[in-house]
Design a protein that fits this description.
It is a single chain. The protein has 303 residues and is mainly beta. The protein contains no helices and 29 strands. The chain is globular, with a radius of gyration of 18 Å. The N and C termini lie far apart (41 Å).
Length: 303
């Protein structure tokens, strides 16, 4: 049953127009640690419960939850639908990237290693218009399987390349800009959100700059815990970080923040008008109605 947290507020600046509504709690603490929300374009928000290694779906019409499939062998984290409406799944436990039908049937394991060593913990994912796949591979393993924390790219033809090894300690959220020309990557161990130029020929990224800075540093912690991200059609970036979704305009200026009672992990827009932001936050799924219309990868990217 939906529960509104009237004590929560959306902090809004005058120059960012959103509906003055509080987050709506859609679940009842039945999950353990959820991540990777993905809108199927019609009815369901799919998401991962990482410790349980299961993928669930939420019906936006019936307000009900059900098990989509058990991914016990590979584990799960970031999810995104490809151009054929199959799920690309970050195999958090097994260290792979796989393509699956929505009932969990394995179509193919795309990649599971680099330089002869398995990936550590594939975390988040974004798909470009051509079907190429960016993903992050952070870890807290000691020692790790991979010596460098990297952002990888799987070409539309299926070839694995390193998009960048550019000085990350915990690369996490990854997202392509609405014009398809740039890649946003955040690092959970810093407060910066980075912006790269995308090479349109081979998918590699370069020209790393700081796009924006998470502003919860005043809690005394070095780590922002920046996590998954979403974009609206105007290029505003929504970033999960600790107890907030922080909002930045296309110039990197912070324009608002939505507060939550538990740590946020990721977000995506959904429903028919794509004006509802769905947020995974540890044990629960939340929704927030906004005025802005969401941008859905890869379908809304330009040709």
């Amino acid at each position: 049953m939906k529960t509104k947290f009237l004590s929560l507020v959306i902090i809004i600046t005058f120059f960012y127009q959103v509906k003055a509504q509080t987050p709506v709690k859609l679940s009842t603490d039945q999950f353990r640690f959820i991540e990777g929300p993905a809108w199927d374009g019609s009815e369901f928000i799919y998401f991962s419960d990482i410790p349980d290694k299961k993928i669930y779906k939420y019906s936006v019409t019936n307000n009900t939850f059900s098990l989509a499939f058990d991914n016990n062998a590979d584990g799960c984290n970031g999810l995104m639908f490809d151009n054929d409406s199959n799920l690309i799944v970050c195999g958090f436990r097994a260290g792979n990237i796989a393509r699956r039908k929505i009932d969990g049937t394995l179509i193919e394991t795309l990649h599971s290693e680099y330089n002869g060593k398995r990936f550590d913990n594939p975390n988040d994912i974004c798909i470009d218009k051509k079907g190429g796949i960016y993903f992050t591979d952070p870890t807290r393993r000691n020692p790790p399987f991979q010596s460098v924390r990297s952002v990888y790219y799987i070409t539309p033809a299926g070839k694995l390349t390193v998009a960048t090894e550019s000085g990350f300690t915990f690369p996490n959220g990854v997202l392509i800009s609405i014009d398809g020309k740039h890649l946003f990557v955040n690092d959970s161990d810093t407060h910066d959100i980075y912006k790269f130029d995308i090479n349109q020929k081979d998918g590699t990224i370069s020209n790393k700059t700081v796009f924006a800075t998470i502003t919860n540093a005043n809690d005394g912690e070095v780590k922002s815990q920046a996590d998954g991200m979403a974009l609206d059609t105007e290029g505003n970036l929504y970033v999960a970080s600790k107890l907030t979704i922080q909002i930045f305009n296309k110039n990197g200026t912070k324009t608002g923040a939505i507060l939550f009672p538990e740590q946020t992990t990721n977000c995506t827009f959904g429903k028919s008008d794509k004006k509802t932001l769905f947020v995974t936050a540890t044990k629960n799924l939340y929704s927030v109605d906004l005025i802005k219309r969401g941008f859905q990868h890869p379908f809304d990217l330009p040709e």
